[in-house]
Design goal:
The structure is a homodimer of 411-residue chains. By secondary structure, chain A is of the alpha/beta class. The first copy, chain A, has two domains: 6-150 and 311-362, Rossmann fold; 154-308 and 370-392, Rossmann fold (3-Layer(aba) Sandwich). The first copy, chain A, is 36% helix and 17% strand. The first copy, chain A, is built from 14 helices and eleven strands. Chain A has helices at residues 20-31, 47-51, 63-70, 86-98, 110-125, 152-173, 188-191, 216-230, 249-253, 273-288, 305-308, 314-332, 359-362, 383-389; strands at residues 6-12, 37-43, 55-57, 101-108, 131-136, 175-181, 206-208, 232-238, 297-301, 337-346, 351-357. In chain A, the strands form two sheets. In chain A, strands 3-2-1-4-5-10-11 form a seven-stranded mixed β-sheet, sandwiched between helices. Chain A has a four-stranded parallel β-sheet with strand order 7-8-6-9, sandwiched between helices. In chain A, helix 5 (110-125) links the parallel strand 4 (101-108) and strand 5 (131-136). In chain A, helix 1 (20-31) runs antiparallel to helix 3 (63-70), helix 1 (20-31) packs parallel to helix 12 (314-332) and helix 4 packs across helix 5. The longest helix of chain A has 22 residues, at 152-173. At the A-B interface, strand 2, strand 3, helix 3, helix 6 and helix 10 of A face strand 2, strand 3, helix 3, helix 6 and helix 10 of B.
Chain lengths: 411, 411
């Protein structure tokens, strides 16, 4: 199998993750000794670096630096949400020719895989020989063909740890604690709030996912039920919850104008409005129902910290670095194109493998939390989700519990 | 020195921390082999457990359990914000007599030390021999007589890590990122956002502390200056910022009714309103100034996660366990009362020691960030703060940086 001789470019698109550097560093490690690869360019700010001919020389970086960068959250190659139009694609193919770029590796989510697919079609239409690969990435875990995506496990580890701590905190005073997690259309990250539960009474006691329509009255009754039982309730809510008409709950509850990005996505992160509005609702509900005179109720929003907290899941890191290497190996092995994906072999012991899947099978599609991971009541996850998710996080610190049955006898 | 023979009670009050269990476990470890100590009771929900005679038997817990609990965030003895009145104090002294409780150890902040001081006066007035100790605790680090308080270093570690990740994330797209930290009257936790900076260009670029009055126009101009220079700006803001008239900025910017606790403290945590309002201001300002057509601006609020995240600073853990042991040793050594505090011996190498200080020197007072830790411009910390704070956090993961001077030459 002969492969073209030329330069390679790597770039990253969309929201960063705690391990996204590991994906492109993996590609660089996989390419650097191949005689076919003349230069390895890091395009800055995703495809914008190609359009602006703004490349950092990755061959010139020493391996120690690259390895340190691979352990650093967010992307050292910077990012963009620019969705290329036909003119951009024509321009990029011309620039590939100008720089003799024959290999393209883009790490990103489903918007990125769609952009790459169109870029590939443009190159083919122009008769330019290009080897083009998408390397899966997204904290949301919403890519088809992947058991899970690089970045998800580290974000899930953070979410699970945040809820473990918040649940212990909520026990101290009782009352309500609600926390909003990322995940516009897919509930994987919100579901991860359940992965740190240690006892049957551990929170989150209720989990609301974007895969199920959200009914504000039922939500209030659910919380009331848990509060009656435990005197407290910890609630995990996806930022993307919508009512039965498909209207985002944030939009229902808020009169503020909402911002949309160039892919038409409404801004749901970077605001505490949903948590605040839901907590207000619950407070009013429980106080009006006479459950409590003055309810202690708090709402938080995990926000951007959850996708970039410097605590990589060791499983995520190793798999992501390996996925980058795999994409490089595919290219050098003669594959013309594809999306590098992670598949699961077994839950216990946890084992996974890499697979190159067609770009079009990932491009622009959204994967959702499977039905058997969602509790039939629509307000929790199932044991099947826990079995699936738990191995991805790596070790969590152990929590101790006092034996509360050992009481001092009253005198 | 003879000390009375009797039971000991330990309890925790106020907001939990990541290491508060270590303080009372330290007390238990320090007391458990003393022949003077008959039983060791854990009062549940702070002083409410005394008033309700609701005690868990801590002698009956095995040491392995206690050590596991000491590494678990928030308090296994649960908490309260109940401030005892004169009647409560009379009742508690009667109950101490009924249960032959001769030793009291309360871990808490300045509200707790004040309650303990009054409780002590009540016991003395009633002629009841009691040995009563306050064990410093608070993420806010606002206790007099302490170099720093148990719980602060772990919360500061979280805040520093959150900003390290958020700063790398903000680099990817540019624009503004603002994040609100806990600390009603003391800026120590907000200041900790600076402890993870790695380069002169690292965020947070601006830090607003409750020790300095907050001027919204100057704030907008500060941010504009940083944005002009870097095309981005990461901003750390204390939840407690007030204007020159002493009015909380959240109150200035919000029409919502604000909740107050039984100590008269307004609820500043558990809402994303301040971050959202400040981000709106900045967006409008920079867009109206023609700096950018549509500014990417995001606001987060660290909320409750920062005080209970399961990632103890190793320095905090060891010091806190030791402080509890020290309080127990003071009691067994014949000290009648006091507050167990942490003092610093040196910054580098970092060394600290414990000291028993008078209850009244801590009770009800608030310590602030010293002037030499605050930049004269009022929008940052100083190197003196960094030198003081950095040793408390323990090791942080290393971040790698690409050499961005190694560019591919344009063709």
């Amino acid at each position: 199998m002969t492969v073209p001789k030329g330069n390679a470019v790597v770039f990253t698109q969309g929201g960063p993750t705690a391990v996204i550097n590991a994906s492109w560093v993996g590609v660089v490690l996989g390419l650097k000794d191949a005689p076919e690869i003349t230069g390895i360019y890091g395009s800055l700010h995703g495809i914008d670096g190609i359009l602006n001919e703004d490349f950092v020389d990755l061959r010139a970086q020493d391996e120690k630096t690259l390895m340190a960068v691979s352990k650093t959250p967010a992307t050292a190659l910077l990012s963009t949400r620019h969705k290329p139009d036909a003119e951009d694609n024509r321009k990029m193919v011309a620039l590939f020719q100008k720089y003799n770029i024959r290999y393209v590796f883009g790490a990103g989510g489903n918007d990125t895989s769609e952009s790459l697919d169109i870029m590939n079609d443009s190159a083919k239409a122009g008769g330019y020989e290009l080897r083009l690969f998408h390397v899966a990435k997204t904290v949301d875990n919403d890519l088809m063909e992947n058991d899970h995506t690089p970045g998800y496990a580290s974000a899930a580890r953070y979410v699970a740890n945040a809820f473990r701590g918040a649940d212990m905190d909520n026990r101290c005073f009782g009352g309500l604690y609600l926390c909003v997690c990322m995940g516009r259309h897919a509930g994987f990250l919100t579901a991860a709030s359940a992965l740190g539960r240690t006892t049957p009474e551990s929170g989150p006691h209720l989990i609301y996912l974007p895969e199920r329509s959200f009914d504000i009255d039922r939500f209030c009754m659910d919380v009331e039920g848990v509060y009656k039982k435990y005197g407290r309730c910890v609630i995990s809510v996806s930022e993307g919850i919508e009512d039965a008409d498909g209207v985002p709950i944030l939009q229902r509850l808020s009169s503020d104008k909402l911002e949309a990005d160039s892919h038409g996505n409404v801004q749901l992160s970077g605001t505490g409005a949903l948590a605040d509005a839901l907590v207000d609702k619950l407070k009013t509900h429980l106080e009006e129902r006479g459950m409590v005179e003055k309810l202690r109720a708090r709402g938080d929003t995990l926000g951007y910290i959850q996708r970039s907290f410097p605590d990589q899941s060791p499983v995520d890191y190793e798999e992501t670095l390996g996925l980058g290497r795999f994409a490089a190996a595919c290219a050098l092995g003669g594959e013309p194109e594809g999306s590098a994906a992670i598949r699961r072999i077994s839950d216990s012991p946890y084992r996974s493998e890499y697979k190159l899947v067609p770009l079009k099978s990932v491009a622009g599609k959204t994967r959702h939390l499977p039905d058997d991971h969602i509790h039939p009541a629509g307000n929790d996850v199932t044991e099947a989700f826990i079995r699936w998710g738990r191995p991805l996080l790596g070790e969590l610190s152990l929590f101790g519990e006092l034996d509360m049955n050992k009481r001092v006898a009253k005198k």
